[in-house]
Amino acid sequence: MRRFISVLFCCLVSWYAIADDDVNTKDSTAASSSIDSELIELVNQLPNTKLNKMQPLVENIAAIKSHKTREVLQILLAGDLYYLKSDKTLVNAQKQNDGNYQLTNILTDEALAPVKKRAIRKIRSNNRLRSAIRSFIAKIDLTDDDKSTRYGAVEQLLEKPSQETLDTMRSLLPLEKDADVANLMQTVLLIEQLKHGKIDEQLSAVAGLKSSLEPVVLNTLSALSEELSASEKTQEQEQLLTAMSKAIATIESKRSNYKFIENVFFGLSLGSVLLLAAIGLAITFGVMGVINMAHGEMIMLGAYTTYVVQLVFPNLIEYSLLIAVPAAFVVTGLVGILIERGVIRFLKGRPLETLLATFGISLILQQLVRTVFSPLNRQVQSPEWMTGSWQINPVFSLTFNRLYIILFAIMVFFTLLMILKKSSLGLHVRAVSQNREMAKALSIKSDWVDAITFGLGSGIAGIAGVVLSQLTNVGPNLGQAYIIDSFLVVVFGGVGNLWGTLVAAMSLGSINKFLEPITGSVLANIIVLVGLVLFIQKRPKGLFPQKGRAVD
Amino acid sequence: MKLKKLIAASSIIASSLMAQVAVAADTIKVGVLHSLSGTMAISETTLKDTVLMMIEEQNKAGGLLGKKLEAVVVDPASNWPLFAEKTRELLAKEKVDVIFGCWTSVSRKSVLPVIEELNGLLFYPVQYEGEESSKNVFYTGAAPNQQAIPAVDYLMNDIGATRWVLAGTDYVYPRTTNKILEAYLKAKGVKDEDIMINYTPFGHSDWQGIVSDIKKFGSAGKKTAVVSTINGDANIPFYKELGNQGISAEDIPVVAFSVGEEELSGFDTKPLVGHLAAWNYFQSVESEENDEFIAAWKTFIGDEKRVTNDPMEATYIGFKMWAKAVEKVGTTDVDAVEQAMIGVAVPNLTGGVAVMNPNHHLSKPVLIGEIQEDGQFEVVWETPDTVIGDAWSDYLPSSMNLVSDWTAPIKCGNYDVKTAKCSGQNF
């Protein structure tokens, strides 16, 4: 109770201080090298303030116009604001690689000696406080030099601008040089005009807003038109209502177009994951005819290779994927060759035994990984460039990781196609798969070709594992989730046909993603599976069956 | 000569047999029925270790009724019918006095007929969907009114959410919980168009379409919150996709009922920071009992990095209560212990007291925590008092009038207060 009163008192004191502050704001910015004493006082209250009393305190801090204000808020927002347990000095703490924390005094910018975690305590925040801080920072950022910071600030304030913010924007708009920022500010002001303006102002606001895709525009328009259509209308209001309905229709048709494009993108991205998972199998199963149940475990090994790469090079997370791709290819490729030489070559022409043997291998590999790495999922970090999204407009964005994966899958596909079509290895592989005896007679070392082909297929599965480590959990069961999908894609596309695999993966992905919003993902999976079974009944050889005498 | 040998041999056998009987009489057998292999092993192995730790501690303190406790550990291997077989083995062959076990609801449902037939005693330590009360089972995890309903209240009153996404994995717990929540929200005046329900298969990893739908659903100008009953592995890709599509916990908070310290350990928690979870215990809660428990656990398991979680606390409370009840009646007889259990109070790990109620459910505090970068939770809200677990939800028409009360004179798991009848079937 005593603490509560003291906090309340402090808040009151600082409130008066701020009221004073407005008068001499200019002085304090002029003397920017020395830090505002009010700020110091308020900031030093942070360690003693309970979470539910933080909001008024932070509000007071934000109201002080000092160059330090934004910095302090930003550190608090990022969760880096700590205080020393010994003397309650506020510090910006950054974790170092050795586990200790690097400290900087937030008020004096003076570096302090690194300490252990136990010596400092975090200033707590929660969602509500963080969103408040975000809008405080946005208000400060409205006058920032960087145009993308300004854009972000306006975006943050878009939803519920206060009267003060609106006034600031009104005065800033004529000075704004960047077109995007100016447009967004205009939108904010037009919404305000639409809500509270006179009828002719409202009409012109509707005209100005009908090309905007910001969700808040559509929400305001539909709320207003609903309100208006429920009550008695004058002629002018009738006119406004028609204008608004037209604007809503325009915006909604645009939105549904983008929704369609987005679905295509989702479909392609799921398709490219399927393609990556299946394309290795298209070689081992499709070209060589080996039913390889351990294919999923090759994917898993590739994912674990990524984990190991990140473990060995903890400072190179940004480049870890670039290292992991060749590493995974080599590791799983070698494992593949080992399996082929050790087991599969003795089972040539006995598909059932091959199936059982490779299934056994898959269990052995899973258990091996469980023993070596633990049965728990392992943490694979995403590099910075794989996170976030490319915001094309307010309703349409593409996530970077999916975008890169689509490009990567297509790249892998065409590289593989080139290898099979243009290289001498590819020639030998095709020769052996079409007619082993004849190829042997032409002095092709069919055993060697088998081993290399199996290694190639497994290596590509390993690459798929690197990609999947970015999308899903890396654990011993990772492979099992993809083995069935992989077989489906290869069989659907037509065994032995790489183009078939591409088309099959992309179409399965797209069908799935277009069904999902309508039926839900559980039913979508079932429908795709049933459809596939019916299709295989009708055309047992898949979409693009191999033709000619080689087929028997 | 031969005869002598025979006599000698038989006397040795007889004496050793007698010794065994004597030893058997000197121990109290505790069955541990948790999967140690298969998909549930990740979660359940921890609970097996917790029971073993509790037994070790109890033995160090002199055992129970002057006897040592002896653990009988079996492995039902995440295989639901095997749970029933192993229960039969524990009760009929090993003659255990009590069983601690099960995680998934389907495994508990498979154990129920056996444990009722052989009159055993099961302590079930995981949050579940309710709609059940058996004479032979004590539910030390949360019922929906001790986790889901308070979480929704928090989102409604403190966050101001008016639009709801109920997302879950497609099986019995999320389906029942969401049914209860939907009825609850509608009773609170939430309209149909403000509720979106979505189910996904186990281990779902391609969340882009669903997250995009949630984003669109949440952009209608009303504060939107997601209530997630998504299970296990599927959570990480879900949160990752939320992060990638630019949805932060401040825009659309997700409150999860299946994400705890154990699930978060070893994950890249960056995309999860700020999202919420509702439990009855967090490792970060500061209390003397909790500090002791965490220290004991780390020593027992021999790993400084291991975390504690809610089902472990439920196991802890269940074990302490059982020990107290046995001491009270001076026997391990199931019927006597079952009656003695009701009303038993032991300290929980969050600084309060857990009481066993006549419906075989606990009184528990409900905590809402925000996920921190180190995989721990920061408590942002808690119920002022403990909440009594409700076996039969008041928000489902089928169970509205049902109560469970195992004390005389009702002695019934599903007593209809309107018709004053007991259907006799408890699940």
TrEMBL record, chain A:
Membrane topology, as annotated: Multi-pass membrane protein
Keywords, in A-Z order: Amino-acid transport, Cell membrane, Membrane, Signal, Transmembrane, Transmembrane helix, Transport
Transmembrane segments: 264-291, 319-339, 403-420, 448-469, 481-506, 518-536
CDD domains: TM_PBP1_LivH_like
Keyword Disulfide bond: no
Signal peptide start and end residues: 1-19
Keyword Ribosomal protein: no
Residue ranges that the Swiss-Prot or TrEMBL entry lists as coiled coil: none
A Pfam family assignment: BPD_transp_2
Compartments it resides in: Cell inner membrane
Location (main, coarse): membrane
One Gene Ontology term from the biological process aspect of the record: amino acid transport
Gene Ontology molecular-function annotations: transmembrane transporter activity
Cellular compartments per GO CC: plasma membrane
Family: Belongs to the binding-protein-dependent transport system permease family. LivHM subfamily.
Name under which the protein is recorded: Branched-chain amino acid ABC transporter permease
Gene source species: Agaribacter marinus
UniProtKB/TrEMBL annotation, chain B:
Keyword Cell cycle: no
First and last residue of the signal peptide: 1-24
Keywords: Signal
Transmembrane spans: none
Pfam families listed in its UniProt record: Peripla_BP_5
Source domain of life: Bacteria
Keyword Acyltransferase (UniProt): no
Protein name: ABC transporter substrate-binding protein
Species, as recorded: Agaribacter marinus
